[in-house]
Amino acid sequence: MFALRGVAVSLSVFAIVYCTLSLAVCLCWARLQDRFRRQPINRIAHLLFSLRILPLVTAAVITAVFTIPSFLLLEPRAIDEPVGGVPLTLGLCGLAIGVFGAANVFLAIRTASRTISAWTREAQSVSSTAPIPVLRIPRPIPPMSAVGIVHPRILLSAAAESLLAAEELETALNHEMAHVRRRDNLKKLVLRFVSFPGMSGLEMAWLEAIELAADDAAVSSPTEALDLAATLIKLSRLGPVEAPVDLSAALVHSPASIMNTRVERLIAWSQRRQAPSQGLAMWYGVLSICTAVGLAAVTYSELLARVHEATEWLVR
Q1: Domain extent for 194
Q2: Of 182 and 258, more confident
C-alpha cells in the first residue's frame, strides 16, 4: 500500500503541475511571442520550443526532485493508509498523460517510417558536399526533405535536381543541413509526446521560426539569399504544396503563408539579419541555473517538508 500511495501521489503532482502550466502557456504564449519578436529568429525558435516543453520539464523535475524524495523520506511506512479517491483519480490522469504521449510517439515513428520507406524504395545515392547521405528519389514530391533522427538523410527528388542550378541546389542542401544540426526532427518527436489541446498555435509559430532560422543559416550573402528564394519558388511549382510528414523537415511545405514570408525575407536579406553572438545570453542562462540550483540545495530540507505537507493535504 505504501508503494501504491507513493505512485499515486507522484503521478498526481505531475498531472497537476503539467496541466496547470500547459493551460498557462496556452493563455500566455501569444503575448510572450510579441516580446520574442525583438530577438534574432534563431533565438526565437529556441524560446518557443523551450516554452512549449516547459510544462513537461517542470512537472518532471518537481516530481523527481521534490515529490518522490519527500514521500520516501517523510511518509511513515508503518501506517497502512488507503489511497484516497482524489490522488487515485489524479494519478490515473498522470498515467494517462504518459500513455497518451507514448502512443503519439509510437504512431509518429511508425507513420514516418512507413512513408519514408516508400519514398526511398528506389532511391539512389547522390554525390554531394553534405556530411550526411543524400538520396535521389523518383517521386517529385517532396522535392527535398531531411528525414530521420538517429541516422539522418536528405531526400532529393529527381525533378528538383534537374530543375535547380548548382548554386541553388547547394543553398537548398545548406537549409536542410541546418535542420539536421538543430535536431529539429527530434524536437518534433518531443512535441508529439507533449501533445496538449490548444497548443497548435504555438507549435505552428515554432515551425515557422525553425524554417526562417534554417533559411538564415543557409545563406551568407545576398546572392545566396536570392538563390534560395529562387529555389523555393521553383520547387513550389513542381506540385501541390503538402504538409510536412512527421519527423521530416521538407524544404517546401504548407501553409503558403510561411512560404511567402520566407521568400520575402530572403529577397530583403541583409547582413544584419545574421544572429549576433549568443555568448552573453548563454552565460546569463548558466548563471541563473546555477543560482537556482544553489538556492534549492541550501533550502532542500525545508522544501521537502513543505512538499510533503502539500501531498499530505492531497491524500487526505
Answers
A1: 2-275+286-315
A2: 182
